[in-house]
């Protein structure tokens, strides 16, 4: 699932723009609700001690996502 | 301000909300907003009530209502659960949406977080689609200033077309103005607003449906909004709409016809299912973006950058876990060290009172049995609960609440999520476990923040492995009696804090183990996806939290002591003094339980105390003491050392002590918790499982431990 250009590959401190959401069902809706749609800018802020989940800055809020879920968010690095 | 008496104990078992107006002229205002934006703080500040607040998303899980008056006008405020959207993807979003749509509030105050206003506007825009009677309250202005975010609220207000009020509810800033704005709203409610423009095919489809729905909704809901939701294919809402209109929507010929045509039109444009949802959500998000453009400016301050660095350290590879353990141990140490002196003083005072009472009874020539029932039975049990249990509870609770207010709990969930994932459970379970430290019933209600029903049940069934406030003092008392020996003072209290931390870690280990087992057996499934918001740290309102929660706790424990401990004392006295044949009832009961108790490393009296302690865990130790003293040994028990003497005289060894602690950690939930589980799961079966799983775990662990230890 992990494409070369998914959110999972973003390193702490890096930013990127979302190009597409490949998540489905309730996760897709939840991500859209918090403002994560194509075109949204995301910054990788911190990793949890075990390396997963990872917290991202999305529209001013810090949101943690599991690797399975961030792998379905496609990005384009600026 | 953290857990309150309203969110723990029996109050956790809430009932469905019915809005109670004191007068017909009173205005009903719904407080909506994203999770963790301070809705409950606004609610408490306005109503003077004490609804649970804390710095983590999802505290308010049910509607609460309160009254206030402003400039002679009466208001009924309804605090609804936080939600990101009104499309109802989770239980609490559904509660929120249903109240705004079908609860017929006169106005909605949407509370927003100034530090991420753009995201919050999504909910504002969705609310505006339902009703025009909206006031936007931009809360946390103080935090935004701290973070270097400035908001041009006048511009936002002009673009939204409704009043926008800046506020900092924790310091009371902006609340007067909020009430002014609410009072100033025109009373003709439900005026329709057409703020969002959707892509052309969507607008055309809506236009097809609107006329047919206009008749059915009859002004109770905007037809445009109803049309959008019907196109969305939102099943639950379709049912609610049907019951509101008093007719099955799809059975209405004109609606069905229009819907078919609209769907065909959308199909041609490629807007079906996910595509349509995307189009609708994107339109909302883009609109929020447009409204904030040029109105919100962010320039991270030095403070903000420092906060981020601290947060990164707190969740880093090297510090993350040690820091969590250190915090836990520190909280426990403060509790143990701080409770010592008040415990002793209370015991001395209360036992002096007992002597005086006894003397008074003798003085008035009261019958001996009456003195026995009231003084040796009721009063003494009460005295034990108050002196041994109250001080640690009154100290632990505010400390825990401070951590909650600070915003540390979501970080715990963040740190531990990977292990929950390995157990096929949800990281938010860590949050519900944290609540369990305060009160297991509150922990169970907190499980509503977990969206997946399977993971929610796992969290409910395992919540009892976290010792609640009512069980801590039991553990602390046994620890200090049997494992500290001569070590008193500072080193003694540190040692017992470390031992207690160990016991809690064992409980957490059991949680993981049982979660994993449940995921493999009764509740098979794979971990589901979720998002976890990490809110900014907030300075806790230290003074208020401490005063409030000590006060709350003290009253709560005293109330419970009167309601539960006093009758339990009565029962124990009766059991010990009513004889059947040659034996007292107590001897018969404990004798009956004795073989099993001994197999578990305890004895019949201890097991009986756990059974009688079902209504409240804090009465287990007092019942034990009562039972032992009733069997003849009478000592002055004002000090723990004397208490240890009593226990040892009744055959306690270190094995008994450890087994009792293990069983205290792992046995059936108290009756309030069971009732809450029944209510929350809606199932007798899962309540029974929640009762049996920790009990079985306790039986297995105690049985293994006791029998292995005896071999040594």
Automatic annotation (TrEMBL), chain A:
The keyword Protease does not apply. SMART domains: FeoA. Transmembrane segments: none annotated. Pfam families: FeoA (PF04023). SUPFAM superfamilies: C-terminal domain of transcriptional repressors (SSF50037). Residues 5-77 form the Ferrous iron transporter FeoA-like domain. Keywords: Iron. The keyword Transferase does not apply. It comes from the Bacteria. One of its GO terms (molecular function) is transition metal ion binding. This is Ferrous iron transport protein A.
UniProtKB/TrEMBL annotation, chain B:
Residues 26-188 form the FeoB-type G domain. GO terms for cellular component: plasma membrane. Coiled coil: none annotated. CDD domains: FeoB. GO terms for molecular function: ferrous iron transmembrane transporter activity; GTP binding; metal ion binding. The chain crosses the membrane at residues 318-336, 382-403, 470-488, 494-514, 554-576, 605-625, 646-668, 688-709. It is found in: Cell membrane. The keyword Transmembrane helix applies. It is a multi-pass membrane protein. GTP binds at residues 33-40, 79-82, 139-142. Keywords: Cell membrane, GTP-binding, Ion transport, Iron, Iron transport, Magnesium, Membrane, Metal-binding, Nucleotide-binding, Transmembrane, Transmembrane helix, Transport. InterPro entries: Fe2_transport_prot-B (IPR003373), Fe2_transport_prot_B_C (IPR011640), FeoB_Cyto (IPR041069), FeoB_GTPase (IPR050860), G_FEOB_dom (IPR030389), Gate_dom (IPR011642), P-loop_NTPase (IPR027417). Mg(2+) binds at residues 44-45, 47-48. Gene3D superfamilies: 1.10.287.1770, P-loop containing nucleotide triphosphate hydrolases. Its main location: membrane. Belongs to the TRAFAC class TrmE-Era-EngA-EngB-Septin-like GTPase superfamily. FeoB GTPase (TC 9.A.8) family. Probable transporter of a GTP-driven Fe(2+) uptake system. This is Ferrous iron transport protein B. It comes from Anaerofilum hominis. The gene is feoB.
